[in-house]
Design goal:
alpha+beta, single chain, 25% strand, 21 helices
Length: 641
Protein backbone atom coordinates (compact mmCIF):
# COMPACT_ATOMS: atom_id res chain seq x y z
CA UNK A 1 0.00 0.00 0.00
CA UNK A 2 1.35 3.40 -0.92
CA UNK A 3 1.95 6.05 1.68
CA UNK A 4 -0.90 8.15 0.26
CA UNK A 5 -3.36 5.33 0.55
CA UNK A 6 -2.22 4.60 4.07
CA UNK A 7 -2.70 8.23 5.00
CA UNK A 8 -6.22 8.18 3.54
CA UNK A 9 -7.07 5.05 5.47
CA UNK A 10 -5.79 6.63 8.67
CA UNK A 11 -7.89 9.73 8.08
CA UNK A 12 -11.00 7.59 7.51
CA UNK A 13 -10.22 5.69 10.70
CA UNK A 14 -9.93 8.96 12.69
CA UNK A 15 -13.18 10.32 11.23
CA UNK A 16 -15.01 7.04 11.91
CA UNK A 17 -13.88 6.70 15.50
CA UNK A 18 -14.34 10.35 16.47
CA UNK A 19 -17.75 10.78 14.88
CA UNK A 20 -19.17 7.52 16.23
CA UNK A 21 -22.01 7.85 18.75
CA UNK A 22 -20.42 4.95 20.63
CA UNK A 23 -17.29 5.26 22.69
CA UNK A 24 -14.16 3.73 21.17
CA UNK A 25 -10.90 2.75 22.77
CA UNK A 26 -7.91 0.54 22.22
CA UNK A 27 -6.39 -1.53 25.01
CA UNK A 28 -3.05 -3.29 24.99
CA UNK A 29 -2.41 -6.81 26.25
CA UNK A 30 -1.69 -5.47 29.77
CA UNK A 31 -5.08 -3.76 29.89
CA UNK A 32 -3.75 -0.20 29.46
CA UNK A 33 -5.76 2.27 27.35
CA UNK A 34 -3.64 3.33 24.41
CA UNK A 35 -6.22 5.19 22.30
CA UNK A 36 -9.71 6.66 22.76
CA UNK A 37 -12.22 8.84 20.92
CA UNK A 38 -14.03 11.91 22.25
CA UNK A 39 -17.30 10.05 22.79
CA UNK A 40 -15.81 7.67 25.33
CA UNK A 41 -14.23 10.58 27.14
CA UNK A 42 -17.68 12.13 27.48
CA UNK A 43 -19.20 8.83 28.62
CA UNK A 44 -16.77 8.44 31.51
CA UNK A 45 -16.15 12.13 32.25
CA UNK A 46 -12.37 12.08 31.62
CA UNK A 47 -10.25 14.17 29.31
CA UNK A 48 -8.41 12.22 26.62
CA UNK A 49 -5.08 12.75 28.42
CA UNK A 50 -6.56 11.42 31.70
CA UNK A 51 -8.11 8.44 30.02
CA UNK A 52 -4.78 7.40 28.47
CA UNK A 53 -3.29 7.10 31.97
CA UNK A 54 -5.89 4.49 32.99
CA UNK A 55 -6.18 0.76 32.60
CA UNK A 56 -9.33 -1.31 32.07
CA UNK A 57 -9.27 -2.46 35.70
CA UNK A 58 -9.90 1.17 36.81
CA UNK A 59 -13.33 1.04 35.19
CA UNK A 60 -14.56 -2.42 36.13
CA UNK A 61 -17.51 -2.08 38.55
CA UNK A 62 -18.21 -5.81 38.76
CA UNK A 63 -14.72 -6.86 39.91
CA UNK A 64 -15.16 -10.39 38.69
CA UNK A 65 -11.82 -11.64 37.37
CA UNK A 66 -13.27 -14.99 36.37
CA UNK A 67 -15.89 -13.30 34.18
CA UNK A 68 -13.24 -11.02 32.70
CA UNK A 69 -11.04 -14.01 31.82
CA UNK A 70 -14.01 -15.70 30.11
CA UNK A 71 -14.49 -12.64 27.87
CA UNK A 72 -10.78 -12.50 27.04
CA UNK A 73 -10.69 -16.22 26.24
CA UNK A 74 -13.71 -15.89 23.93
CA UNK A 75 -12.12 -12.93 22.16
CA UNK A 76 -8.86 -14.77 21.71
CA UNK A 77 -10.64 -17.88 20.42
CA UNK A 78 -13.35 -16.35 18.23
CA UNK A 79 -11.74 -13.02 17.48
CA UNK A 80 -14.56 -10.92 18.96
CA UNK A 81 -17.13 -10.78 21.78
CA UNK A 82 -20.18 -8.74 22.78
CA UNK A 83 -21.35 -8.46 26.37
CA UNK A 84 -22.92 -6.18 28.97
CA UNK A 85 -21.16 -5.04 32.11
CA UNK A 86 -20.86 -2.15 34.55
CA UNK A 87 -18.17 0.55 34.56
CA UNK A 88 -17.27 3.35 36.94
CA UNK A 89 -17.19 6.96 35.72
CA UNK A 90 -14.76 9.60 36.96
CA UNK A 91 -17.30 10.85 39.55
CA UNK A 92 -17.67 7.34 41.01
CA UNK A 93 -21.11 6.56 39.57
CA UNK A 94 -21.62 3.17 37.96
CA UNK A 95 -23.13 2.96 34.50
CA UNK A 96 -24.33 -0.03 32.50
CA UNK A 97 -22.51 -0.46 29.19
CA UNK A 98 -22.66 -2.74 26.17
CA UNK A 99 -19.20 -3.64 24.85
CA UNK A 100 -18.34 -4.95 21.38
CA UNK A 101 -14.65 -5.90 21.20
CA UNK A 102 -12.18 -7.59 18.87
CA UNK A 103 -8.52 -8.65 19.07
CA UNK A 104 -5.93 -7.47 16.52
CA UNK A 105 -3.04 -9.97 16.65
CA UNK A 106 -0.76 -7.79 14.51
CA UNK A 107 -0.93 -5.00 17.09
CA UNK A 108 -1.46 -7.30 20.12
CA UNK A 109 -4.29 -4.95 21.06
CA UNK A 110 -8.02 -5.03 21.78
CA UNK A 111 -10.38 -2.69 19.92
CA UNK A 112 -13.69 -1.96 21.69
CA UNK A 113 -16.86 0.04 21.03
CA UNK A 114 -18.68 0.92 24.24
CA UNK A 115 -22.29 2.12 24.46
CA UNK A 116 -23.90 3.61 27.56
CA UNK A 117 -27.13 1.59 28.04
CA UNK A 118 -27.99 2.84 31.53
CA UNK A 119 -31.07 4.73 30.36
CA UNK A 120 -32.13 1.82 28.17
CA UNK A 121 -31.80 -0.60 31.07
CA UNK A 122 -33.74 1.73 33.35
CA UNK A 123 -36.45 2.09 30.72
CA UNK A 124 -36.64 -1.70 30.38
CA UNK A 125 -36.85 -2.03 34.16
CA UNK A 126 -39.56 0.62 34.35
CA UNK A 127 -41.45 -1.08 31.54
CA UNK A 128 -41.17 -4.44 33.29
CA UNK A 129 -42.43 -2.94 36.54
CA UNK A 130 -45.27 -1.23 34.69
CA UNK A 131 -46.22 -4.47 32.99
CA UNK A 132 -46.11 -6.28 36.33
CA UNK A 133 -48.31 -3.63 37.95
CA UNK A 134 -50.67 -3.69 34.99
CA UNK A 135 -50.89 -7.48 34.99
CA UNK A 136 -51.45 -7.51 38.76
CA UNK A 137 -54.20 -4.92 38.39
CA UNK A 138 -55.57 -6.77 35.38
CA UNK A 139 -55.86 -10.03 37.30
CA UNK A 140 -56.96 -8.70 40.72
CA UNK A 141 -59.58 -6.15 39.62
CA UNK A 142 -63.10 -7.49 40.11
CA UNK A 143 -64.30 -6.12 36.76
CA UNK A 144 -64.05 -8.09 33.53
CA UNK A 145 -61.61 -6.56 31.00
CA UNK A 146 -61.59 -7.36 27.28
CA UNK A 147 -59.30 -6.14 24.50
CA UNK A 148 -60.97 -6.90 21.17
CA UNK A 149 -60.35 -6.11 17.53
CA UNK A 150 -62.91 -3.55 16.42
CA UNK A 151 -63.14 -5.13 12.98
CA UNK A 152 -64.57 -8.50 14.02
CA UNK A 153 -64.87 -8.51 17.83
CA UNK A 154 -62.14 -11.13 18.34
CA UNK A 155 -60.81 -11.15 21.91
CA UNK A 156 -57.03 -10.71 21.93
CA UNK A 157 -56.52 -10.18 25.68
CA UNK A 158 -58.72 -10.49 28.75
CA UNK A 159 -58.95 -11.58 32.37
CA UNK A 160 -61.14 -14.34 33.78
CA UNK A 161 -63.62 -12.27 35.81
CA UNK A 162 -67.43 -12.58 35.78
CA UNK A 163 -67.91 -14.68 32.62
CA UNK A 164 -67.03 -18.10 34.01
CA UNK A 165 -64.69 -18.79 31.05
CA UNK A 166 -60.94 -19.30 31.34
CA UNK A 167 -58.60 -16.89 29.57
CA UNK A 168 -57.69 -19.63 27.08
CA UNK A 169 -61.37 -20.20 26.25
CA UNK A 170 -61.93 -16.49 25.63
CA UNK A 171 -58.88 -15.45 23.59
CA UNK A 172 -59.26 -16.02 19.86
CA UNK A 173 -63.06 -16.16 19.97
CA UNK A 174 -65.54 -13.37 19.33
CA UNK A 175 -68.06 -12.13 21.89
CA UNK A 176 -70.81 -13.22 19.49
CA UNK A 177 -69.44 -16.78 19.20
CA UNK A 178 -69.32 -17.11 22.97
CA UNK A 179 -72.78 -15.56 23.39
CA UNK A 180 -71.55 -13.10 26.03
CA UNK A 181 -74.28 -10.61 25.10
CA UNK A 182 -77.74 -11.78 26.21
CA UNK A 183 -79.37 -9.19 23.95
CA UNK A 184 -77.74 -8.66 20.55
CA UNK A 185 -79.51 -5.29 20.20
CA UNK A 186 -77.63 -3.99 23.23
CA UNK A 187 -74.32 -5.01 21.63
CA UNK A 188 -75.24 -3.25 18.39
CA UNK A 189 -76.18 -0.14 20.35
CA UNK A 190 -72.77 -0.09 22.07
CA UNK A 191 -71.01 -0.56 18.72
CA UNK A 192 -72.95 2.36 17.22
CA UNK A 193 -72.09 4.63 20.14
CA UNK A 194 -68.39 3.76 19.93
CA UNK A 195 -68.38 4.37 16.17
CA UNK A 196 -70.03 7.75 16.68
CA UNK A 197 -68.17 9.03 19.74
CA UNK A 198 -65.13 6.76 20.06
CA UNK A 199 -66.26 5.60 23.50
CA UNK A 200 -69.25 4.66 25.64
CA UNK A 201 -69.46 4.95 29.43
CA UNK A 202 -71.55 2.97 31.92
CA UNK A 203 -73.94 1.39 29.41
CA UNK A 204 -76.24 -0.98 31.30
CA UNK A 205 -76.69 -4.34 29.56
CA UNK A 206 -77.38 -8.00 30.30
CA UNK A 207 -74.57 -10.52 29.82
CA UNK A 208 -74.58 -14.32 29.75
CA UNK A 209 -72.10 -16.42 31.72
CA UNK A 210 -70.65 -19.74 30.60
CA UNK A 211 -73.22 -21.65 32.69
CA UNK A 212 -76.08 -19.77 31.01
CA UNK A 213 -76.93 -17.57 33.97
CA UNK A 214 -77.51 -13.87 33.31
CA UNK A 215 -75.57 -10.96 34.77
CA UNK A 216 -76.70 -7.36 35.01
CA UNK A 217 -73.62 -5.35 34.07
CA UNK A 218 -72.33 -1.92 33.15
CA UNK A 219 -69.91 -1.71 30.20
CA UNK A 220 -67.49 1.11 29.35
CA UNK A 221 -65.63 0.90 26.02
CA UNK A 222 -62.93 3.03 24.37
CA UNK A 223 -61.62 2.68 20.81
CA UNK A 224 -57.91 3.31 20.07
CA UNK A 225 -55.55 2.67 17.13
CA UNK A 226 -52.67 0.25 17.50
CA UNK A 227 -50.50 -0.30 14.45
CA UNK A 228 -52.72 -0.46 11.41
CA UNK A 229 -55.78 -1.71 13.33
CA UNK A 230 -58.36 -0.31 15.76
CA UNK A 231 -58.97 -2.03 19.07
CA UNK A 232 -61.66 -1.76 21.73
CA UNK A 233 -60.84 -1.84 25.44
CA UNK A 234 -63.98 -2.76 27.40
CA UNK A 235 -64.55 -2.97 31.15
CA UNK A 236 -67.65 -4.79 32.42
CA UNK A 237 -68.75 -4.27 36.02
CA UNK A 238 -71.24 -6.43 37.90
CA UNK A 239 -74.00 -4.05 39.00
CA UNK A 240 -76.35 -6.68 40.42
CA UNK A 241 -75.90 -5.32 43.93
CA UNK A 242 -76.10 -1.73 42.72
CA UNK A 243 -79.33 -2.54 40.88
CA UNK A 244 -80.73 -4.24 43.96
CA UNK A 245 -79.92 -1.23 46.14
CA UNK A 246 -81.44 1.11 43.56
CA UNK A 247 -84.60 -0.99 43.34
CA UNK A 248 -84.79 -1.06 47.13
CA UNK A 249 -84.35 2.71 47.24
CA UNK A 250 -87.12 3.22 44.69
CA UNK A 251 -89.34 0.80 46.59
CA UNK A 252 -88.76 2.70 49.83
CA UNK A 253 -89.43 6.00 48.07
CA UNK A 254 -92.65 4.54 46.70
CA UNK A 255 -93.66 3.39 50.17
CA UNK A 256 -92.83 6.80 51.63
CA UNK A 257 -94.87 8.53 48.94
CA UNK A 258 -97.76 6.18 49.58
CA UNK A 259 -97.47 6.80 53.33
CA UNK A 260 -97.64 10.53 52.71
CA UNK A 261 -100.77 10.11 50.58
CA UNK A 262 -102.20 7.85 53.28
CA UNK A 263 -101.59 10.42 55.98
CA UNK A 264 -103.03 13.21 53.85
CA UNK A 265 -106.22 11.27 53.23
CA UNK A 266 -106.34 10.26 56.88
CA UNK A 267 -106.23 13.89 57.98
CA UNK A 268 -108.91 14.73 55.43
CA UNK A 269 -111.12 11.80 56.44
CA UNK A 270 -110.70 12.46 60.16
CA UNK A 271 -111.47 16.13 59.72
CA UNK A 272 -114.69 15.73 57.75
CA UNK A 273 -116.03 12.35 58.96
CA UNK A 274 -117.81 13.75 62.04
CA UNK A 275 -119.66 16.53 60.21
CA UNK A 276 -120.24 14.32 57.16
CA UNK A 277 -121.88 11.60 59.25
CA UNK A 278 -124.00 14.18 61.11
CA UNK A 279 -125.32 15.42 57.77
CA UNK A 280 -125.99 11.87 56.58
CA UNK A 281 -127.77 11.07 59.84
CA UNK A 282 -130.05 13.99 59.27
CA UNK A 283 -130.72 12.97 55.67
CA UNK A 284 -131.40 9.34 56.54
CA UNK A 285 -133.52 10.23 59.58
CA UNK A 286 -135.68 12.71 57.76
CA UNK A 287 -136.15 10.38 54.81
CA UNK A 288 -137.19 7.58 57.18
CA UNK A 289 -139.70 9.86 59.00
CA UNK A 290 -141.12 11.07 55.73
CA UNK A 291 -141.63 7.49 54.57
CA UNK A 292 -143.42 6.65 57.80
CA UNK A 293 -145.85 9.55 57.35
CA UNK A 294 -146.60 8.91 53.71
CA UNK A 295 -149.33 6.68 52.45
CA UNK A 296 -148.14 3.70 50.41
CA UNK A 297 -149.77 5.21 47.34
CA UNK A 298 -147.72 8.44 47.50
CA UNK A 299 -145.79 9.12 44.27
CA UNK A 300 -142.74 10.43 46.26
CA UNK A 301 -142.20 7.22 48.24
CA UNK A 302 -139.82 5.76 45.65
CA UNK A 303 -137.81 9.00 45.59
CA UNK A 304 -137.37 8.93 49.38
CA UNK A 305 -136.23 5.28 49.28
CA UNK A 306 -133.60 6.24 46.69
CA UNK A 307 -132.44 9.02 49.02
CA UNK A 308 -132.07 6.46 51.85
CA UNK A 309 -130.01 4.10 49.67
CA UNK A 310 -127.77 6.90 48.38
CA UNK A 311 -127.15 8.15 51.94
CA UNK A 312 -126.29 4.60 53.07
CA UNK A 313 -123.73 4.31 50.24
CA UNK A 314 -122.28 7.67 51.24
CA UNK A 315 -121.92 6.45 54.85
CA UNK A 316 -120.20 3.30 53.59
CA UNK A 317 -117.81 5.47 51.57
CA UNK A 318 -116.89 7.41 54.72
CA UNK A 319 -116.23 4.15 56.55
CA UNK A 320 -113.95 2.97 53.74
CA UNK A 321 -112.05 6.23 53.79
CA UNK A 322 -111.43 5.81 57.51
CA UNK A 323 -110.41 2.20 56.97
CA UNK A 324 -107.99 3.28 54.22
CA UNK A 325 -106.35 5.78 56.55
CA UNK A 326 -105.84 3.03 59.11
CA UNK A 327 -107.88 4.97 61.65
CA UNK A 328 -111.15 3.08 61.47
CA UNK A 329 -112.71 1.90 64.70
CA UNK A 330 -111.64 -1.66 65.55
CA UNK A 331 -113.15 -4.09 68.02
CA UNK A 332 -110.11 -6.29 68.64
CA UNK A 333 -110.39 -9.86 69.93
CA UNK A 334 -108.40 -13.10 69.55
CA UNK A 335 -109.54 -14.77 66.34
CA UNK A 336 -108.90 -18.22 64.87
CA UNK A 337 -108.15 -17.29 61.25
CA UNK A 338 -109.06 -20.76 59.96
CA UNK A 339 -112.45 -20.68 61.70
CA UNK A 340 -113.20 -17.20 60.36
CA UNK A 341 -112.45 -18.30 56.78
CA UNK A 342 -114.52 -21.45 57.16
CA UNK A 343 -117.49 -19.49 58.54
CA UNK A 344 -117.33 -17.22 55.47
CA UNK A 345 -117.39 -20.20 53.09
CA UNK A 346 -121.05 -19.96 52.04
CA UNK A 347 -120.91 -16.17 51.66
CA UNK A 348 -117.79 -16.48 49.49
CA UNK A 349 -119.34 -19.21 47.33
CA UNK A 350 -122.35 -17.07 46.41
CA UNK A 351 -120.13 -14.00 45.77
CA UNK A 352 -117.96 -15.47 43.04
CA UNK A 353 -118.52 -16.74 39.51
CA UNK A 354 -120.10 -20.17 39.17
CA UNK A 355 -117.19 -21.20 36.92
CA UNK A 356 -114.65 -20.58 39.66
CA UNK A 357 -113.56 -23.28 42.11
CA UNK A 358 -112.79 -22.11 45.65
CA UNK A 359 -110.00 -24.18 47.19
CA UNK A 360 -108.96 -24.09 50.87
CA UNK A 361 -105.44 -24.90 52.13
CA UNK A 362 -105.71 -24.25 55.86
CA UNK A 363 -102.70 -25.07 58.05
CA UNK A 364 -103.43 -26.44 61.52
CA UNK A 365 -102.70 -25.71 64.28
CA UNK A 366 -102.43 -21.93 63.82
CA UNK A 367 -101.70 -19.21 66.40
CA UNK A 368 -104.58 -16.84 67.03
CA UNK A 369 -104.45 -13.23 65.81
CA UNK A 370 -105.89 -10.24 67.65
CA UNK A 371 -107.98 -8.46 65.01
CA UNK A 372 -111.33 -6.89 64.32
CA UNK A 373 -113.30 -9.80 62.86
CA UNK A 374 -115.57 -7.56 60.78
CA UNK A 375 -112.61 -5.75 59.22
CA UNK A 376 -110.80 -9.04 58.57
CA UNK A 377 -113.90 -10.41 56.83
CA UNK A 378 -113.86 -7.28 54.65
CA UNK A 379 -110.25 -8.09 53.63
CA UNK A 380 -111.11 -11.69 52.73
CA UNK A 381 -114.24 -10.65 50.83
CA UNK A 382 -112.41 -7.92 48.88
CA UNK A 383 -109.52 -10.20 47.89
CA UNK A 384 -111.77 -13.11 46.86
CA UNK A 385 -114.18 -10.94 44.83
CA UNK A 386 -111.25 -9.22 43.08
CA UNK A 387 -109.78 -12.65 42.31
CA UNK A 388 -113.10 -13.79 40.82
CA UNK A 389 -113.34 -10.65 38.68
CA UNK A 390 -109.76 -11.21 37.48
CA UNK A 391 -110.77 -14.69 36.24
CA UNK A 392 -113.90 -13.26 34.60
CA UNK A 393 -116.18 -15.54 32.59
CA UNK A 394 -113.52 -18.24 32.20
CA UNK A 395 -113.05 -21.29 34.42
CA UNK A 396 -110.47 -20.85 37.13
CA UNK A 397 -109.35 -21.52 40.70
CA UNK A 398 -109.15 -19.27 43.76
CA UNK A 399 -107.03 -20.71 46.57
CA UNK A 400 -107.26 -19.46 50.17
CA UNK A 401 -104.22 -20.52 52.17
CA UNK A 402 -103.34 -19.94 55.82
CA UNK A 403 -100.15 -20.65 57.70
CA UNK A 404 -97.19 -19.31 59.69
CA UNK A 405 -94.11 -17.72 58.22
CA UNK A 406 -90.82 -16.64 59.77
CA UNK A 407 -90.15 -13.25 58.14
CA UNK A 408 -86.71 -11.62 58.08
CA UNK A 409 -85.90 -7.99 57.37
CA UNK A 410 -85.32 -8.62 53.64
CA UNK A 411 -88.71 -10.30 53.26
CA UNK A 412 -90.50 -7.49 55.09
CA UNK A 413 -88.93 -4.90 52.80
CA UNK A 414 -90.59 -6.58 49.82
CA UNK A 415 -94.08 -6.10 51.27
CA UNK A 416 -96.49 -3.18 51.11
CA UNK A 417 -96.17 -1.54 54.50
CA UNK A 418 -95.99 2.01 55.70
CA UNK A 419 -94.58 1.49 59.20
CA UNK A 420 -91.43 -0.52 60.05
CA UNK A 421 -92.35 -4.01 61.26
CA UNK A 422 -90.10 -6.31 63.32
CA UNK A 423 -88.72 -9.61 62.10
CA UNK A 424 -90.29 -12.76 63.46
CA UNK A 425 -93.22 -15.13 63.16
CA UNK A 426 -96.33 -13.92 61.30
CA UNK A 427 -99.65 -15.59 60.59
CA UNK A 428 -100.61 -15.25 56.95
CA UNK A 429 -103.72 -15.41 54.79
CA UNK A 430 -102.97 -15.82 51.07
CA UNK A 431 -105.48 -15.50 48.23
CA UNK A 432 -104.24 -16.63 44.81
CA UNK A 433 -106.08 -16.82 41.50
CA UNK A 434 -105.57 -18.07 37.96
CA UNK A 435 -106.90 -14.83 36.45
CA UNK A 436 -105.57 -12.28 34.00
CA UNK A 437 -102.82 -10.94 36.29
CA UNK A 438 -101.48 -7.39 36.38
CA UNK A 439 -98.61 -5.53 34.79
CA UNK A 440 -96.11 -3.52 36.84
CA UNK A 441 -97.84 -0.22 36.12
CA UNK A 442 -101.10 -1.54 37.61
CA UNK A 443 -99.30 -3.16 40.54
CA UNK A 444 -97.75 0.18 41.47
CA UNK A 445 -101.20 1.77 41.78
CA UNK A 446 -103.51 -0.93 43.17
CA UNK A 447 -103.49 0.53 46.69
CA UNK A 448 -103.87 4.14 45.58
CA UNK A 449 -107.14 5.72 46.70
CA UNK A 450 -109.73 6.02 43.91
CA UNK A 451 -107.64 3.92 41.49
CA UNK A 452 -109.70 1.21 39.76
CA UNK A 453 -109.52 -0.91 36.63
CA UNK A 454 -113.26 -1.63 36.75
CA UNK A 455 -115.80 0.11 34.56
CA UNK A 456 -117.75 0.95 37.71
CA UNK A 457 -116.46 1.34 41.24
CA UNK A 458 -115.02 3.90 43.59
CA UNK A 459 -111.52 2.42 43.79
CA UNK A 460 -111.42 2.22 47.58
CA UNK A 461 -111.64 -1.57 48.04
CA UNK A 462 -107.90 -2.34 47.94
CA UNK A 463 -107.11 0.99 49.56
CA UNK A 464 -109.34 -0.03 52.47
CA UNK A 465 -107.63 -3.45 52.62
CA UNK A 466 -104.23 -1.79 53.02
CA UNK A 467 -105.60 0.60 55.65
CA UNK A 468 -107.10 -2.24 57.70
CA UNK A 469 -103.84 -4.22 57.53
CA UNK A 470 -101.88 -1.14 58.56
CA UNK A 471 -104.23 -0.60 61.50
CA UNK A 472 -103.52 -4.17 62.64
CA UNK A 473 -99.71 -3.72 62.47
CA UNK A 474 -99.48 -6.08 59.50
CA UNK A 475 -98.28 -6.04 55.91
CA UNK A 476 -99.35 -7.38 52.53
CA UNK A 477 -97.19 -8.88 49.78
CA UNK A 478 -98.41 -8.90 46.18
CA UNK A 479 -97.14 -10.96 43.25
CA UNK A 480 -98.68 -10.87 39.79
CA UNK A 481 -97.79 -11.34 36.13
CA UNK A 482 -99.97 -10.68 33.09
CA UNK A 483 -101.68 -13.91 32.06
CA UNK A 484 -100.36 -15.83 35.10
CA UNK A 485 -102.70 -14.75 37.87
CA UNK A 486 -102.12 -12.92 41.14
CA UNK A 487 -101.26 -13.66 44.76
CA UNK A 488 -102.07 -11.48 47.78
CA UNK A 489 -100.46 -12.55 51.08
CA UNK A 490 -101.67 -10.75 54.23
CA UNK A 491 -99.24 -10.94 57.17
CA UNK A 492 -100.57 -10.43 60.71
CA UNK A 493 -98.68 -10.63 64.01
CA UNK A 494 -99.74 -13.60 66.19
CA UNK A 495 -101.50 -13.02 69.49
CA UNK A 496 -99.20 -12.23 72.40
CA UNK A 497 -101.36 -14.28 74.78
CA UNK A 498 -99.59 -17.61 75.21
CA UNK A 499 -102.73 -19.33 76.50
CA UNK A 500 -104.42 -18.75 73.15
CA UNK A 501 -101.43 -19.62 70.95
CA UNK A 502 -102.97 -22.89 69.77
CA UNK A 503 -106.49 -24.03 69.00
CA UNK A 504 -107.99 -26.91 70.98
CA UNK A 505 -105.20 -27.25 73.53
CA UNK A 506 -105.81 -30.08 76.02
CA UNK A 507 -106.63 -29.13 79.58
CA UNK A 508 -104.51 -32.01 80.89
CA UNK A 509 -101.12 -31.23 82.39
CA UNK A 510 -98.50 -30.77 79.66
CA UNK A 511 -95.32 -32.85 79.97
CA UNK A 512 -92.13 -30.80 79.74
CA UNK A 513 -88.57 -31.63 78.81
CA UNK A 514 -85.28 -29.81 78.33
CA UNK A 515 -82.22 -29.77 76.10
CA UNK A 516 -81.67 -29.21 72.39
CA UNK A 517 -84.16 -30.48 69.79
CA UNK A 518 -83.65 -30.51 66.00
CA UNK A 519 -86.83 -30.07 63.94
CA UNK A 520 -86.47 -31.19 60.29
CA UNK A 521 -89.23 -30.32 57.80
CA UNK A 522 -89.34 -28.80 54.31
CA UNK A 523 -92.51 -26.76 55.07
CA UNK A 524 -91.88 -23.32 56.58
CA UNK A 525 -95.25 -23.30 58.34
CA UNK A 526 -94.57 -26.65 60.03
CA UNK A 527 -91.09 -25.55 61.13
CA UNK A 528 -92.51 -22.31 62.52
CA UNK A 529 -95.37 -23.83 64.53
CA UNK A 530 -93.39 -26.97 65.46
CA UNK A 531 -90.60 -24.80 66.88
CA UNK A 532 -93.12 -22.90 68.99
CA UNK A 533 -94.53 -26.19 70.31
CA UNK A 534 -91.13 -27.59 71.23
CA UNK A 535 -90.18 -24.33 72.93
CA UNK A 536 -93.44 -24.48 74.86
CA UNK A 537 -92.36 -27.96 76.04
CA UNK A 538 -89.08 -26.57 77.33
CA UNK A 539 -86.65 -27.32 74.50
CA UNK A 540 -84.08 -25.18 72.78
CA UNK A 541 -84.94 -25.59 69.09
CA UNK A 542 -82.84 -25.56 65.92
CA UNK A 543 -84.31 -26.33 62.49
CA UNK A 544 -83.33 -27.77 59.11
CA UNK A 545 -85.33 -27.81 55.88
CA UNK A 546 -84.21 -31.20 54.52
CA UNK A 547 -82.26 -34.33 55.42
CA UNK A 548 -78.94 -33.16 54.05
CA UNK A 549 -79.05 -29.92 56.03
CA UNK A 550 -80.11 -31.90 59.11
CA UNK A 551 -76.97 -34.06 58.87
CA UNK A 552 -74.76 -30.97 58.56
CA UNK A 553 -76.40 -29.41 61.62
CA UNK A 554 -76.15 -32.65 63.63
CA UNK A 555 -72.42 -33.00 62.82
CA UNK A 556 -71.78 -29.42 63.95
CA UNK A 557 -73.63 -29.77 67.26
CA UNK A 558 -72.71 -32.28 69.97
CA UNK A 559 -75.64 -31.40 72.28
CA UNK A 560 -78.61 -32.56 70.16
CA UNK A 561 -80.54 -35.34 71.92
CA UNK A 562 -83.92 -35.23 70.16
CA UNK A 563 -84.83 -35.03 66.46
CA UNK A 564 -88.32 -34.61 65.04
CA UNK A 565 -87.85 -35.79 61.44
CA UNK A 566 -90.26 -35.38 58.52
CA UNK A 567 -90.52 -38.40 56.24
CA UNK A 568 -91.08 -36.77 52.82
CA UNK A 569 -88.55 -34.06 51.86
CA UNK A 570 -86.53 -33.01 48.76
CA UNK A 571 -82.80 -33.68 48.29
CA UNK A 572 -82.67 -36.26 51.14
CA UNK A 573 -85.84 -37.77 52.60
CA UNK A 574 -86.44 -38.73 56.22
CA UNK A 575 -85.75 -42.45 55.72
CA UNK A 576 -82.28 -41.90 54.25
CA UNK A 577 -81.51 -39.18 56.79
CA UNK A 578 -82.55 -41.55 59.63
CA UNK A 579 -80.08 -44.21 58.43
CA UNK A 580 -77.23 -41.64 58.29
CA UNK A 581 -78.11 -40.33 61.76
CA UNK A 582 -78.02 -43.85 63.20
CA UNK A 583 -74.53 -44.35 61.80
CA UNK A 584 -73.40 -41.13 63.51
CA UNK A 585 -75.13 -41.89 66.84
CA UNK A 586 -77.00 -45.19 67.36
CA UNK A 587 -78.66 -43.86 70.54
CA UNK A 588 -80.14 -40.63 69.17
CA UNK A 589 -83.88 -40.16 69.81
CA UNK A 590 -85.69 -39.74 66.46
CA UNK A 591 -89.41 -39.02 66.30
CA UNK A 592 -90.70 -39.58 62.75
CA UNK A 593 -93.38 -37.18 61.49
CA UNK A 594 -95.66 -37.86 58.53
CA UNK A 595 -99.15 -37.71 57.12
CA UNK A 596 -98.99 -41.49 56.66
CA UNK A 597 -100.63 -43.72 59.23
CA UNK A 598 -98.78 -45.00 62.28
CA UNK A 599 -99.13 -48.57 60.99
CA UNK A 600 -97.45 -47.68 57.70
CA UNK A 601 -94.54 -45.92 59.42
CA UNK A 602 -93.85 -48.73 61.86
CA UNK A 603 -94.05 -51.22 58.97
CA UNK A 604 -91.40 -49.29 57.03
CA UNK A 605 -89.14 -48.78 60.07
CA UNK A 606 -89.66 -52.14 61.75
CA UNK A 607 -86.55 -53.13 63.69
CA UNK A 608 -84.70 -49.93 62.74
CA UNK A 609 -85.02 -48.30 66.14
CA UNK A 610 -87.11 -45.17 65.69
CA UNK A 611 -88.01 -43.64 69.03
CA UNK A 612 -91.58 -42.75 68.11
CA UNK A 613 -94.01 -41.42 65.55
CA UNK A 614 -96.36 -38.44 65.39
CA UNK A 615 -98.94 -38.05 62.64
CA UNK A 616 -99.64 -34.75 60.90
CA UNK A 617 -101.51 -32.58 61.63
CA UNK A 618 -100.72 -32.71 65.34
CA UNK A 619 -101.45 -30.57 68.41
CA UNK A 620 -99.22 -29.57 71.28
CA UNK A 621 -100.82 -32.19 73.51
CA UNK A 622 -100.15 -34.90 70.89
CA UNK A 623 -96.47 -33.99 70.70
CA UNK A 624 -96.23 -33.89 74.49
CA UNK A 625 -97.73 -37.38 74.81
CA UNK A 626 -95.40 -38.90 72.20
CA UNK A 627 -92.30 -37.42 73.81
CA UNK A 628 -93.40 -38.44 77.29
CA UNK A 629 -94.07 -42.04 76.22
CA UNK A 630 -91.10 -42.59 73.93
CA UNK A 631 -88.05 -40.89 75.47
CA UNK A 632 -85.50 -43.41 76.74
CA UNK A 633 -84.09 -43.88 80.21
CA UNK A 634 -80.67 -42.98 78.85
CA UNK A 635 -81.85 -39.45 78.27
CA UNK A 636 -83.65 -38.79 81.56
CA UNK A 637 -81.21 -36.00 82.37
CA UNK A 638 -82.18 -34.29 79.11
CA UNK A 639 -85.86 -35.16 78.80
CA UNK A 640 -87.55 -35.10 82.16
CA UNK A 641 -91.02 -34.71 83.56
Amino acid sequence: MSFQLAEQALRKYDILTNTSMDGYWEIDAAGRIIAANETICRIYGYSCEELLTKSLQDFDAIENDEQMQEHIARIMTEGYDRFETKHFCKDGTAIEVEVSTAYIPENAAFLAFTRNITEKKQAEKDLLESELKFRTLFETIQDAIYLTRAEDGTIVECNEKLSGYTREELIGNTTAELGLWADIQERLRVVDLVKTHGYVNDFVATFRRKDGSLLQGSISTNAFPLGDQTYLLSVVRDITERTRIEEERLHLEQQLLHAQKLESLGVLAGGIAHDFNNILTSIIGNAELALMRLTPESPVQENLQRIEKAAARAADLAHQMLAYSGKGKFVVEPIDLNRLVEEMGHMLDVSISKKVILRYNLSRPLPTVEVDATQLRQIVMNLVINASEAIGDKSGVIAITTGCLECNEKYMKETWLTDPLPEGLYVYLEVTDTGCGMDQQTLDKIFDPFFTTKFTGRGLGMAAVLGIIRGHKGAIKVYSEPGKGSSFKVLLPPSARAAELYNERDDAEIWRGSGVALLVDDEETVRAIGSEMLKELGFEVITANDGREALDVFKSRKDIRLIVLDLTMPRMDGEQCFRELRLLDPNINVIMSSGFSEHEIYRRFAGKGITGFIQKPYKLSDLSKVLKAKTTDANETLLKQ
